[in-house]
Amino acid sequence: MTHMHVAGSIHADASSPAPVWLTRPVDVNVLTPALWSENVTRDDDGVISVAGLKLTDLAEQVGTPAYVIDEEDFRARARAWRQAFAGWTVYYAGKSFLCTTIARWVAEEDLSLDVCSLGELTVALRAGFDPARLGMHGNNKSEAELRLGLASGVGRIIIDSADEIGRLERLCAELDTTAQVMVRVTTGVEAHTHEYIATAHEDQKFGFSISGGQALVALVRCYHSPRLNLVGIHSHIGSQIFDTNGFEVAARRTLKLMAQFKEATGTALGELDLGGGFGIAYTKEDDPAGPEVLAAGLREIVDHECRGFGLDVPAVSIEPGRAIVGPAGLAVYRVGTVKSVEVGGGLSRRYVSVDGGMSDNIRPALYAAEYSAALASRTSAAEPVVSRVVGVHCEGGDILVRDEFLPTDVAPGDLLAVPASGAYSRSMANNYNHTPRPPVVAVRDGRVTTLVRRETLDDLLALDAGASETKEA
To answer: What is this structure's pTM?
Structure first.
């Protein structure tokens, strides 16, 4: 099964206040297990708990909005991916969510780590992460990034352009070192995902085209460079991918390129990164394959294509993306206002406004990503009604959950929980309307650990060069 994100206008057709896949629940209090972390439960009073801690108590302790990570669920998912892909290297995606504690968890669970900015690299190094297990991405890496990567001894730098080859050679000569590199290629495979997160079609910014011949030229150039140690090829076809269908063509084209390189140089490349970007369930409609199924499918594809090209199976790595931290996290909000709006044809839509919004989760506004939500602070016997969960920002597109059945008695003061918020929520958060970003906390055995503290207005004003002058005046 392939999957397509809902794209286009973020406002639903007024003649249909809910998508066809959103079905009316028999009991609005029942949680769909596939959407939540393993240790999320609802007690007899209807209060949702994470790892033994009630969200009502957590909200009292840390306030709302807040991101909540189920630590044991995170670790269990990391182990599941590592075990399913035993013999391959699994890279955690730093861009999905990274802080020093998360980097340490990743290291403790024996995963490698991808970083794609100076900030992410600095966080990983500050956490004490083994630089030899770091992969360094980026389509326009700065000299500062490359210098730190070389000085710290990152395990691989994924080269993305001809300009970067020259830049990296010059820096290596200046520092008298050699860089371990992979060449990122575009395979021409379009993943069934949103345009903005599909990354292997030809018309986009990443990598060297295989079909245009640039990829082979880049590989040969790196191979002959005295300052670059070419270890292999990197491919990535997109994010939020539910199965292995697209990888079959991508692996075939990538391994054909490996065969062409061997013919041209007489040397076999030893490593292949297939990327990943595997999907998670954001709504009841989503049905992603698990790591065991994906591992079996990918192993079969690689083995088959290597036999076809007469190649030994290289060392393979994958990047699960959001699939580790995404389902391990949720966001908790407090309701501030509720209103119903006539949308025409005798239909109305219920708007539930919470104390967060597009500043703490921009994905729905950015590319119409779908999420779910549940009343988290109590049980309800009220009838379910299609509702839209919106934020506090001065934007009509400030939507967190486009369509969800919530009880008709949801009222100011109630808590709502949004599952699958562990990935890309905090990492893409912003300060729109001068809104401080929420904290990230981890829960394990009923205890809270702050991973990233809540931002304050003083934090924001500390960057405002004129604020101190105004205060003194």
So the answer is: 0.92
